[in-house]
Amino acid sequence: MSSLSTSQTLTKQTKLRMPQQKTTTLQAMPLEGFHKTLEHHAGRPLKMRINDNHSTMLSVRWEPDHTRVSLHRMFLNAPTNVMEALACYLKGNNRSLTPTLKQYIEQCRQQLDYSSAINPTELSHQGRYYHLLDLYNEVNEEYFEGRVKLHITWFGQPQSRNRSRISFGLYHDTLRLIKINRVLDHPNIPRFLITYVIYHEMLHHICPPNVDGEGIHRIHNREFKQREMEFRYYQHAVEWIRQNKVNLFAGVTNGRT
Ligand SMILES: [Zn+2]
Asked: Which among 15, 131, 145, 242 is most buried, taking Cβ atoms within 10 Å?
């Protein structure tokens, strides 16, 4: 459910973390100096924009005579080794992100909180059969002592179509937002399945991804999987999905099951 970096645009929508203390040990470099330093090390002209975007951390286009880059403000505080890796990337000889860059972006993402950008009146909690916020609160109380502060909403259409893949839930980490697919708002869907999906998405906040030494994002890492199995109906949910996968993909909510 998480997509990282396609065609040099680094965005992501799944994962999550507990709000963390912001550490500002480094002073942000003045913008002009930052631009010049980066340009100098990249060895080519840069058309640079600093963004404060909840989804785009780094977006780059290599033009013949310059590099166009949109950088999240997180880079203004980047330590030297990250600046070097960034300059090298902007140069364009090697267009894959190094583990150093990926790790820095991931660490910084975990401190970003754009949840105030969400208009609560635009969130949809009441389904036809299930009330998402009630279920979320129950899970929060039972497993997290009510401490987790996230938004939740339905998304998509209640009617499922033939498809090869269904996302039951999504987690937008920087927005602190869980989205649950409306195809689950149906009497054929057991309550434990929806609470399992909610629990899973909440875990993305509790057990955020890590980037390993090879630069691979470990989203459902070992800690995540261990915590996931603590869900009371974990085995039931896994078994239910296994048995009903075919029906779901065919459109369980169209009454074909
Ligand atoms: Zn997941």
From this structure: 15
